[in-house]
Please model this.
Amino acid sequence: MRFLLGALTATGIFLIDTFTMLQSSVATLYILVLVAIGDLVTSRAISSAAAACAGLTLVSFGMNHGMDPGAGALLRLVVSVTAIVLAAALIARGNTLRLSTAKALRASEAKYRDIFDTLAVAIWEHDFRAVKAEIQALRAGGVTDLRSYLVDHPEFVIKTRRMVQITDANETALRLLHIPTKEQFFSNLAGFLPETDESFAECLIALDEGWPIFESKAQVRTATGNPVDIIVALTFPPGGRGLDRIYGSILDITERKRIEGVLDRTRAELDRATRAAAGSELSATLAHEINQPLSAVRTYTDAAGRWLSRRPPNIDEALDAVNHAADAAAKAGEIITRVRRFLSKSAHERTPMTVDLVIRSGVDLVQGQIAATATTLVLNLRAGAARVCGDKALVQQLLLNLIDNALQAMDQHGAEQPRLLVETRCESGSVYVTVSDNGPGFAREACDRAFEAFFTTREGSMGLGLTMCRSIAERHDGSIRIDRSRLERGAAVEVRLPALPAE
Model:
């Protein structure tokens, strides 16, 4: 049609230029012919059309002016031909630029189409225009709280879900939903999003409130009906524009959820194993802690028996031994009580106590063990009236564990003159208790692991004594350490407990 229009235009211009007496450059109107067909033909065709127009101009000039034209006529001829040539050149250049731009655009579209189709993330394109119109109609109808409206009217969510058109999808999306071709892809969101889905309601809120990005976990159905767990992210353009091309990025998390399930089961199994190990450790700890007072009970009852078997029997000494045995038995009862409180998560009794007095009463419980090993006990208690706040039985148990470790270490390595020193001092707002001996001490490689549960260098030991000591010290906001300056020259363990302000 445009070629016919161009031909008719050229004919009309030729007739006007040839058979009228107009004294103007009518031939410049041939540019209209070039413009009419310029974007339909190649640059070579434009050059041919320009040559034809220039030829018609020369024919008209010859028929009007013959062999003796005037200067004005020659000038008009030159202007007309020059205009036609320049117009043709500009149109040809424009065509070249247009064609190269179109080629680059096609290449770019092909490139990004390849990227779109080969991405590892599934992508499909949504058209939300109809949904936006429905929400605007609700607003116009007086709905002010869309979130509450969606809760009360789930049918609106189902209706709008069916209105979301799927206009494109990449190859990863096809594989995700087990669809062979794009033509067979679901036409709307309701095709693969179950009606039980709760994420789309939040998507409607995001669309209404103008969120730039909406992300949610969801579950979709494949073409075969199998569920797939996904994370979906939609990007909404500002101002509600471009709702006909809303891209959704979809990440398949089915495998991740499977692994999470495996991890959850593994954690449950580990928890059961940990509880079993904790029960075993608790049993070992309980046996270790009760062993000391029970040993004292046996020592004192044996002593009472010896006093009573004398002739005459020494009733006073026997009663004294029985009283010490009763104290040790009471100590065992206190340990059981505290274990019960621990298991029931009850709070330990925390009361102010004078450290030096607690140490003196604790030492009385192991006097028999000290005597049995011929150990010299030296008390250098210089904390005076300094007090700490805590559980008296636990603090005393800490001291007894340290003394028991020292006595066993010296006895096992055959110290000729075993000597046990218990010292206290008050310094910088803390009370320090040091228990030292002249046994083999700590080897350097064992020093760093001494407080680990079940680590021991003594045959037959469960390795729980120092672990319990650290637990008790930390429970009282204190600390415990080994004096490294005395490694392999006897052991020295120092406990620090925060002191109460002086009254």
